[in-house]
From TrEMBL:
GO annotations of cellular component type: chloroplast
SUPFAM superfamilies: Leukotriene A4 hydrolase N-terminal domain, Metalloproteases ('zincins'), catalytic domain
Family, per entry: Belongs to the peptidase M1 family.
Protein name: Peptidase M1 family protein
One Pfam family linked to the record: Peptidase_M1
InterPro entries: Aminopeptidase_N-like_N, Aminopeptidase_N-like_N_sf, Peptidase_M1, Peptidase_M1_dom, Peptidase_M1_pepN, Peptidase_M4/M1_CTD_sf
Residues annotated as transmembrane: 477-498
Species this chain originates from: Acorus calamus
Gene3D superfamilies named among the record's database cross-references: 3.30.2010.30, Neutral Protease Domain 2 (1.10.390.10), tricorn interacting facor f3 domain (2.60.40.1730)
Keyword vocabulary terms for this entry: Aminopeptidase, Hydrolase, Membrane, Metal-binding, Metalloprotease, Protease, Transmembrane, Transmembrane helix, Zinc
Length: 504
């Protein structure tokens, strides 16, 4: 995910040329627990280390991984996620502090999730059918689902409608004693996207339906274990008025589409890869697309589509150029090939998160996609190149290899920032880009680092995870042990996934 950029007026960045400028999603400062002075020293040290490292990118990474392998025996990496929801706590509306040390593995995993959306002007009906797998068969534990403020219509277990065998409060739906072996959970909820002003979950803006689920927006769509270590394969069927919402998009590949009675139509999407729910996305509205193709190094043709309101379409040429450049660069430099036959980008003016890497359906604020020579500066072009690359690179670093918990947020962001900085450097001038990086760090990071808003890169607790999307995780992470471990584990998992895909 990337926050929306607010350009710095009068900064040196605007005086620089297009080539070598950086991606601009690091807009707000993030602080680490060092003092500013100590951070300056560390940062300068990081810079020299980083420059050396990037110059030897391939060989350096291998060297780095060897070092991690040798030392991993004596290292411990504390990881955690949300603790199991407490039914007592959920009765209270006061925010709860989540502690790293309280991590517990989930008692239930979700294997597949079939979603069905009936989009309407007054209300939207969301039906989910989830295959639930107990972590340990034969032991019955409560299954608690997140769902603040959701209206429950019905709930079924293995096809049987539940009347009393569940607990519902303002934040959670709990099954006190679900089956002790695999079972099917069907839940129907009613939501009101047109009234959703939080812009988390499913909301409606300028006539279009749009989602934002990172970090904890999916729980506002349907009852769910909304935590990144719950990974499932999704299908998504969308039904809506054809005139008002001619375009229906979700993750993965389009399996079916067609017309229905009453002026409606539908689309059925299937994402073949497991993902956490924060990567789910849905878009429905009046959009048009710029289409292109990219042939991967293995010879597979990928359809690329950038969707915008009709009047914005002429301004998407640079974004398409950036996407194709990013896809090619990731193959050449990191050996990572795109893994589906379709890649969609949606750019709408009302998306408040800046940009979001939903699997195969990236959603952007228009500011980070649209450019024309009449209205865009060199810095705007550079920013688009960087942020399009950033969200695309998440396809592997963040999506296919993802976080187990939100305390690991800085790992997926740090590695992906590193990758997009390398991309922008290779596309332009490496020294100029580093100067721009440092200028931003000094302008944003240091003041926050010296303020009451200072916080560690990896916090020990949080109340609302959204507060940690403050951007400058990139440079400050280069000496982080977890960052190196993430790179190590990324390549371990990537090799496993690659081997599985080539075996099948
Ligand atoms: Zn990101």
């Amino acid at each position: 995910m990337a926050r929306l950029v607010v350009p710095i007026r009068g900064s040196g960045i605007q005086k620089m040329g297009f080539l070598g400028l950086i991606s601009s999603f690091q807009t707000q400062p993030i602080s680490c627990h060092h003092s500013s002075q100590r951070f300056v020293r560390n940062f300068n040290s990081n810079l020299s280390h980083f420059t050396e490292f990037t110059d030897r990118r391939r060989s350096g990474l291998q060297h780095l991984l060897r070092g991690v392998r040798q030392s991993k025996a004596r290292l411990t990496c504390s990881v955690a996620t949300q603790p199991a929801p407490n039914i007592e706590e959920s009765k209270m509306d006061t925010p709860k502090e989540i502690f790293l040390k309280d991590y517990k593995m989930p008692d239930y995993y979700f294997d597949s999730v079939d979603l069905d959306f009936l989009l309407g002007e007054e209300k939207t009906i969301v039906s989910s059918k989830i295959t639930v797998l107990p972590r340990i068969e034969g032991i019955s534990c409560p299954l608690t689902l997140d769902g603040p403020g959701l209206k429950l219509i019905s709930i079924k277990v293995d096809g049987k409608l539940l009347k009393e065998d569940y607990l519902l409060d303002s934040r959670h739906l709990t099954l006190p004693s679900p089956p002790t072996t695999a079972f099917t959970l069907e839940i129907v909820t009613e939501i009101y996207p047109q009234d959703n002003t939080s812009l988390e979950g499913l909301y409606k803006s300028s006539g279009n339906f749009c989602t934002q689920c990172e970090a904890e927006g999916f729980r506002r769509i349907t009852f769910y274990q909304d935590r990144p270590d719950i990974m499932a394969k999704y299908t998504c069927r969308i039904e809506a008025d054809k005139t008002l919402y001619p375009v229906l998009l979700s993750n993965g590949n389009l399996m079916e589409k067609g017309d229905l009675e009453g002026g409606k139509h539908y689309a059925l999407w299937e994402d073949p890869f497991k993902k956490p729910c924060y990567l789910f996305a849905l878009v429905a509205g009046q959009l048009e697309s710029r289409d292109d193709t990219f042939v991967t190094r293995s010879g597979r043709e990928v359809l690329l589509r950038i969707w915008t309101p009709a009047q914005d379409l002429p301004k998407t040429a640079h974004a398409m150029y950036s996407l194709k450049a990013a896809m090619k660069w990731d193959e050449e430099v990191f050996g990572l090939e795109y893994d589906l036959d379709l890649f969609n980008i949606v750019a709408v003016p009302d998306f408040n998160m800046g940009a979001m890497e939903n699997k195969s359906l990236n959603i952007f604020n228009s500011k980070l996609v649209l450019a024309s020579p009449e209205t865009a500066s060199d810095a705007d072009y550079a920013a688009i190149l960087g942020v399009i690359g950033h969200e695309y690179f998440h396809n592997w670093t963040g999506n296919r290899v993802t976080c187990r918990d939100w305390f690991q947020l800085s790992l997926k962001e740090g590695l992906t920032v590193f990758r997009d900085q390398e991309f922008s450097s290779d596309m332009g001038s490496r020294p100029v880009k580093r100067i721009a990086d440092v200028s931003k760090l000094r302008a944003y990071q240091f003041p926050q680092d010296a303020s009451p808003m200072a916080h560690p890169v990896r916090p020990h607790s949080y109340i609302k995870m959204d507060n940690f999307y403050t951007g400058w995780s990139s440079v400050s992470l280069f000496l982080s042990l977890e960052f190196f471990l993430y790179i190590y584990f990324f390549f371990v998992f990537y090799n496993i996934i690659y081997k599985m895909s080539t075996d099948s």
